[in-house]
Known about the structure:
Helices cover 44% and strands 0% of the residues. It is globular. α1 (21-30) runs antiparallel to α2. The chain is mainly α. The chain has two domains: 1-67, no CATH class; 68-109, no CATH class.
Amino acid sequence: xxxxxxxxxxxxxxxxxxxxxxxxxxxxxxxxxxxxxxxxxxxxxxxxxxxxxxxxxxxxxxxxxxxxxxxxxxxxxxxxxxxxxxxxxxxxxxxxxxxxxxxxxxxxx
Length: 109
């Protein structure tokens, strides 16, 4: 086996971005300076850039589902529907408003 054929894998990249792009996008969203669409577009662009950067550096096994807008444990709670009653969620997708209210320990307004 040559060195060129050895698979290279990573556990992912820091979700915040090399220049703190996610932090800036989140703060803009929370301050009301951008909307949900802009936040989700920034997140998608950051994920794509992370994948492209890994590929350009020779990573052959690029992980997926390593991104979170806030916290992986919160993501799992949302995924399995472990939403406290105080947030008024009954079923279906969890809104970003509720997601971030849970993240920040506030009630959804």
